[in-house]
Amino acid sequence: MVSTSTEELNKSVGHEIQIPCVKCSGRTMHEVVVSVDQSGTESKYDFSWYQAYQIIRCKGCKTPSYRETSETSEDYIQIDEDEYEWQGSEKLFPSRIEGRKDLGDDAIYLPSDLRRIYKETVDALTNNFPVLAGIGLRAIVETVCKEKSASGGDLYTKINDLASRNVLTPSGANILHKVRTLGNKAAHEVMPHTLAQLSLAMDVVEHMLKDVYIFPKLVENQFGE
């Protein structure tokens, strides 16, 4: 068996790729600023592989991030009886979902326990851990109820209590009940929800966090009590 491998530094510098940006909305052009390209073959098995490690920078906001790609001669999936399509892999760090942003620097206005579980849930969502993301969404709602001293023996009653005290709007409470149900299925049935469902649920939760914690702090900072 004969194995070969090569490595080239900065071979891909200057190349442009279109991927989701950490800060911009949607996909933007990124430029490779540092790269390590590795490739190799295994002659006995007629197998070849290629990996690229890149520091990239958005050409819009100039934010740097990390990209890693991997492909082999066996990375083909069958899409028809006699038709195959190549499919390699790509990893981005920080991980991200096209078109969605988190609370960013405004998360500092959340209580420490709530901020921690929020960030862990965002990480689960962007790293495609759907069950953990569903559990995390429910945990965020539970933490808000605890932090606001909601009354009741279960989460359903506590959400309604926050609505009765005007911490939440009635429509907001109804939506959070859907998030609660989603979290229950993730926790008790190990049920993974779709990325679209989880992303929408996160949008709802983030809207609640803004209304309950962030907007009041921003108003206080700008206009005083």
Structure notes:
There is one protein chain. The protein has two domains: 91 residues, no CATH class; 120 residues, Up-down Bundle (Four Helix Bundle (Hemerythrin (Met), subunit A)), CATH 1.20.120. The radius of gyration is 23 Å and the shape is elongated. The strands form two sheets. Strands 1, 2, 3, 4, 5 and 8 form a six-stranded antiparallel sheet that branches. A two-stranded antiparallel sheet has the order 6-7. The chain is built from five helices and eight strands, in the order ββββββββααααα. 20% of the residues are buried. Helix content is 41%, strand content 28%. It is an alpha+beta fold and 225 residues long.
Quickly list its features:
single chain; 225 residues; alpha+beta; Four Helix Bundle (Hemerythrin (Met), subunit A); 2 domains; 6-stranded antiparallel sheet; two-stranded antiparallel ribbon; 5 helices; 41% helix; elongated
Q: Kindly state the number of beta strands.
A: 8
Oligomerization state of this entry? single chain
Fraction of helical residues: 40-55%
As residue ranges, the low-confidence spans are: none
The chain-level structural class is alpha+beta
The top level CATH class name of the largest domain = Mainly Alpha
Write down the Rg.
23 Å
Overall outline: elongated
Biggest pleated-sheet summary: 6 strands, antiparallel
SSE topology sketch:
Elements: E1 3-9, E2 16-20, E3 27-42, E4 47-58, E5 64-72, E6 76-80, E7 83-86, E8 89-93, H1 112-126, H2 130-147, H3 155-164, H4 170-189, H5 195-223
Antiparallel strand pairs: 1-3, 2-3, 3-4, 4-5, 5-8, 6-7
Helix pairs in contact: 1-2, 2-4, 2-5, 3-4, 4-5
